[in-house]
Amino acid sequence: MTTKKPARRVIISSFLAASAVLLGLPQQAQAAETVLLNASYDVARELFKDINPLFVADWKKTTGETLSINQSHGGSSKQARSVADGMEAAVVTMNQANDIDMLADKGLVVQDWAKKFPNNAAPYYSTMIYLVRKGNPKQIKDWADLAKPGVKVVIPNPKTAGNGRYTYLAAWGSVLKKGGTEAQARELVTKIFKNVPVLDAGGRGATTTFTQREIGDVLVTFENEVNLVRAEFGNNFEVVYPSISILAESPVAVVDKVVDRRGVRKQATGYLNFLYSEQAQEVIAKHYFRPRSEMAFKKYNANFRQITLFTVDDVFGGWRSAQKKHFDDGGEFDKIYQTK
């Protein structure tokens, strides 16, 4: 009996410590270690799992301070709303600028956040491509093929996931960039979403629907997610690149209200700066995200097929304009999906 009581106390203490971390409560055990929370989108899980220990080791070597990085993942827009609702994230690493703009509008992030780090505060980028089943039985090659009768397309909800939002804009923009009209773009996107059997909240949920639930003929997702699935499932799937797609930047920002309240601005800024280091850029390239570093891009050039990319600024006048027209309540997406 005497040997069990200490063990029980250890278990209870561990539970209370874990609860304190989750709830953001102070505790003596955490006094010697600074903890940062990174609120990120869901298909970046594996990337930050590899980057975080490298930064922790680098920070310890440089400053002597022990850090711990916690992660929270979900649909990008859903994550941004969680931060706005009180999630104690020191930094946000999202997949679209308008999620951070929303936090800036609420006073949690400075308005000029995109100028605080290089490349519009986006240390890497990606694009939207297709994952199809072995043999590509529906012969899916480009955006128009997603609109054909009988094709089931797996895309996450553009209202909650940057993944879905980029897919929507990529399809719409592909028509305009080839000389089509707004009406033709709307028609294509309407037909595509009529072919979507289920709208998952985030990109990883959509991947699970396609790969494990075996729903759909094609998954449209980030380039890195497509290659992650192929690495895990081998030859069960094939990668298809459309003729044109969208440049999907992944912006980052310090959550100013949180870091100032907790006194961790230096650490949070150091964490985001580390993403631009050659060490981190190489990890980014290994995970099939397109790095900003020319050295890393050249080293892992085989990971990235050439593809014509257009930007949200070029075609839609920026994220704020795209958000208002297409994704705000009552916007184009709501009108399109209500007609399904």
Chain-wise SSE layout:
Elements: H1 4-23, E1 34-41, H2 45-63, E2 67-74, H3 76-84, E3 91-93, H4 97-105, H5 118-121, E4 124-133, E5 153-154, H6 162-177, H7 182-194, H8 203-211, E6 218-222, H9 223-233, E7 237-240, E8 244-249, E9 252-254, H10 256-262, H11 265-274, H12 278-286, E10 290-291, H13 294-299, E11 308-310, H14 312-316, H15 319-327, H16 332-338
Parallel strand pairs: 1-2, 1-3, 5-6, 8-11
Antiparallel strand pairs: 3-9, 4-6, 4-7, 4-8, 4-10
Q: What about the largest sheet?
A: 7 strands, mixed
Count of domain modules:
2
Percent helix: 40-55%
Q: What is the CATH homologous superfamily assignment of the largest domain?
A: Periplasmic binding protein-like II
Helix/strand-derived category reads alpha/beta
Low-pLDDT regions:
1-31
Question: What can you tell me about this protein's structure?
Answer:
The protein is α/β, with parallel strands linked by helices. It is built from 16 helices and 11 strands. Strands 4, 5, 6, 7, 8, 10 and 11 form a 7-stranded mixed sheet that branches. The chain has a 4-stranded mixed sheet with strand order 2-1-3-9. Strand 1, helix 2 and strand 2 (67-74) form a beta-alpha-beta unit. The chain is globular, with a radius of gyration of 21 Å.
